Amino acid sequence: MWKELQKSPAFFLLLVKGLKSHILITDYVRIWEVYYTEDEFITSFKESNHLLEMDKNELLEKGFEMLEDLTKVKSIKITIDEQVLTVSMTRLLMPLKLNLVLKEGSKELPTTNWPCDQASLRFFNKITQPALKTIQDLRSSQDELRRMLFTKDDEIEEYKSFGGKIRYTAIAPYNDAAHMKKHCLYNDNYGDSEIPPDVLDKTVDLPKENPKIKEEIIETKISAKLEPVSQELNLQSVTSPSNTVKKEKIKTESQPARKRKLNL
């Protein structure tokens, strides 16, 4: 599950535990990642706490707890230096620190025509941000409808309490717990955290397209499309003489005139 690492500017963290645990951090525009074996993670934890003396299993447990339950973290400091992101975390009520160094992962929309960072900005502007806004709008709509259903059920119960009778209804009272259990994908991925407003309102400066690059791309596409056609034309040019000769022979052959019977 993605967890909110920092509110403003917004960063989210995902821990995938395994033989090589995978740690990812994103701001929805770029993504950074690092892999740790258990021994590598313990070594990193020890380097962050030089005077720490603790059992290996306890070290591993305390370190992963800081990543899995961010409420146990007292302070978080995030710094970015080009393609490297460094996170320094201090545990609450315990003198424990955890320093992570993550490298920028593959870009969301790599292209051969634009630098990768520009491609990520375009991807965020055209796809990620509109998708997040759509999710937020659907969640707001869902919450509003849920509140309306609660209100309607309360009104029906109040109507019944004053002696009102409802002869027949095929709709059972709204069961919010069952509804949310069925539609749980957002909570499975993000928990109770809301999409930060600064992500929804974020603006990115997109670079202007270079017309020369566009022309080169168009020319290469046209030449690639025309190449098989030119081959077909070459083949036709090889076979065309025989075809023309046949046509000429057909034209020059004299055909006997047909005799028509006269109706007398």
Report what the structure shows.
- With 264 residues, the protein is of the alpha+beta class.
- It folds into two domains: 3-104, DNA double-strand break repair and VJ recombination XRCC4, N-terminal (Dna Repair Protein Xrcc4, Chain: A, domain 1); 116-200.
- The protein contains seven helices and seven strands, in the order ββββααβββααααα.
- Helix 1 crosses helix 2.
- The model is unreliable at 108-116, 229-235 and 237-254 (pLDDT under 50).
SSE order and pairing:
Elements: E1 3-6, E2 11-16, E3 21-26, E4 31-36, H1 38-48, H2 56-68, E5 73-81, E6 84-91, E7 97-104, H3 116-161, H4 176-182, H5 185-190, H6 197-200, H7 211-252
Antiparallel strand pairs: 1-2, 2-3, 3-4, 4-7, 5-6, 6-7
Helix pairs in contact: 1-2
Instruction: Return the string of H and E elements.
Output: EEEEHHEEEHHHHH
- Low-confidence runs of at least 5 consecutive residues: 108-116, 229-235, 237-254
CATH level 1 name of the largest domain: Mainly Beta
Gyration radius (Cα, Å) is 35 Å
